[in-house]
Amino acid sequence: MEINTVFQEWLKYAKDAPDLIEELKKLNPIKDQKEIYDRFYTDLEFGTGGLRGVLGAGTNRMNIFVIRKVTQGLCDYLKTSGDPLSVAIGYDSRIKSDVFAREAACVCAGNGITAYIYPRLVPTPAVSWAVRYFKCGAGINVTASHNPSKYNGYKVYGPDGCQFPPEGASKVFEASQKTNAFTDVKKISYNKGIEAGLIKEIPDKCLEDFVDAVLALRPGNDVTKLKLVYTPLNGAGLECVKMLLKKMGVENVTVVPEQEKPDGNFPTCPYPNPEIREAMELGLQLVREKGADLLIGTDPDCDRMGAACPDGKGDYRLITGNEMGVLLLDYLCRFRTEKGSMPKDPVAVTTIVSTDMVTPIAEEFGVDLRRTLTGFKFIGEQIALLEAAGHPERFIFGFEESYGYLSGPHVRDKDAVNAVMLCVECAAWYAAKGMTLLDAINALYDKYGWYRNEQINKAFEGAAGMIQMGHVMDSLRNDPPAEIGGDKVIGRTDYKNDDTGLIKSNVLEFRMESGAKVIARPSGTEPKLKLYLSVKGASEADSIKKMADLREAANTLLTQRM
User: Fold this and answer.
1) What would the pLDDT profile of 18-69 be if each residue is shown by its tens digit?
2) 86, 97, 128, 145: which is the annotated catalytic residue?
3) Which residues contact 383 (CB under 8 A, 6 or more apart)?
4) Does 86 score more than 70 pLDDT?
5) How many beta carbons lie within 10 A of that of residue 412, not counting itself?
6) 402: annotated active-site residue
7) From its phi and psi, is residue 449 left (phi > 0), alpha (psi between -120 and 50) or beta?
C-alpha cells in the first residue's frame, strides 16, 4: 500500500518531467505490481562509486527528482560541514548526464551555494581537479562510469577532491532521506543562477591546467616515434587525451572512428568497459590494420584505461588491469631510481583485491605498499594522509585491478589521462631497449612468478536478486567452506566483522593451502556479486592450469550457495 501511495504521488507531482509521467502511466497498478515494486521499494543508495542506477521513473531509478533530492541532501550537509559553500560539477557522455548536471547546479544555486559547472563533458578526474582548483566544499560528477547505457550515476567529492568515504556518503544520504523530492527541494532556473552569479561555467583554462598537471608528472622519455590507436569508447576522454598526446609530441595517433564522438547509447559495445574485449574489438581491428605500437582505450568517463600491445606473433594482446598496475609500478620505481628522483620512504597504494605480484616488487625497491578496500576514494585517502603529514611527494603510484591508475597528488581519483601518459612513457622506455610491453610483462613474470588473476561476476537483478545476493554472502560467512575444489582453506578474513584496520566492509577472503585465493564481494556500483580469483604458477602453463581448476571450483561453490 505504501509503495502504491508513492507511485500515485509521482503520477501527481512529477509534472515537469513528462517523459517520466508517460513511463509511469504505462504501468498498471494491478498487473504491474512487480515492476512498480522494483521502481519504488527503496531509494538508490551510495555504493563504492556513489549513486548509480537504471534510468527511468521511480525512487530506485536515476531521474531528475532523485538528482534534486540527493543534491538537496548534499546542500543541507554542506551548510553544516564548515566547508566552503561551493560545488564543482561535471558530467560525461551518458544519456541525460548534461540534464542531471544542470539540475544539480540549479539546486545548489537555489540553496545559495555557488556551482562551478563544466559547460561540456569532461573526464571524471577533471572534476576532482576542479574541486581543488576552485577550493570548493564539494564536487558532483554525473556518470555511471563503464556501466551499460541504461545506467547513470552521481559521484560526490569532498573538499580534498576525493570521493566521499562511507561516513560522509551516509550523511549526505541521511540528509536526502529527510527531503521530499517534490516539495522540499530549493532550486532556481539555470539562467537565473547564471545572472545571480551562483552558477559559474568553468573556463577552458581549468581543463588545460589539469592536462598540464598530468604533463608535469612525465618521466620524460622520447615518445615521438610511437604510433598509437586510441578509442574514447564514445565517452569523455577524447579532448583531454588528444591534448595530452599533442603536448607530449605524439603525432601519429589514429582515433577509432566509430567510437570517437560522444554517444550515451554506446552503439558499438553494450558494455563500454576497456576491461571487456568486446569494447576494444574495433580498436584491435584498427591497430592490426595500422601496425601501431599500442592500442589505448578509455572508458566513458575517462577514469579507467585499457591497452593492447604486439604479441610477437603478428597480433595484439590486451593487457589486464593487474598487469598494467605491476608494469607501471615497476617502471616508475626503476626509472626514478635510475634518475635519482625516488623520494625518501616512497609509498604505493593498491587494494585488497589487486594482484599479490606487487608485493615483491615493492619490497625490492623499498616501497611502503599499502592496501585499501575496493574504491579509489580509499587510495585518495592515503594520499591525503601523506599530504596532511607534509609529505605528498612520498606517493609514487596507486592502482586498482579494475584499470584505475594514478601517479601524482594532482587529483584524488583514478585518472585515465594520467594513465595514458604513463602507458605511453613506459612503452617508449622499453622500446628504446628493444622490448615491447609484453616483453616487459613476461620478464617480470619470469622474475617474480606467474601470478594470474580472474573475476567471476554473477548478476542479481531487481529487488529479489539483491535479497538472493545477500543470502549467498550470509551463507559464505556463516558456513564458510572448509575446502574449495579439494584445496584446503587455511585462512579466512571477514572484512565486515574481523579487525583488519580497515573500514568495515561486506567482503570475505579465503586463502587455500596451495597459495590460491578467493575473495567474495558484492559490487558497489552494479547488482552483481564478484569473486576475485588468484593463483601463482611456476610457469605460464602452470598458472593457466591452476586458474582453470580454481575457476571451476569457485563456480561450483557459488552454485551450491545460490
Assistant:
1) 999 999 999 998 899 999 999 999 999 877 678 999 999 999 999 999 999 9
2) 145
3) 162, 349, 392, 395, 398, 409, 412
4) yes
5) 28
6) no
7) left
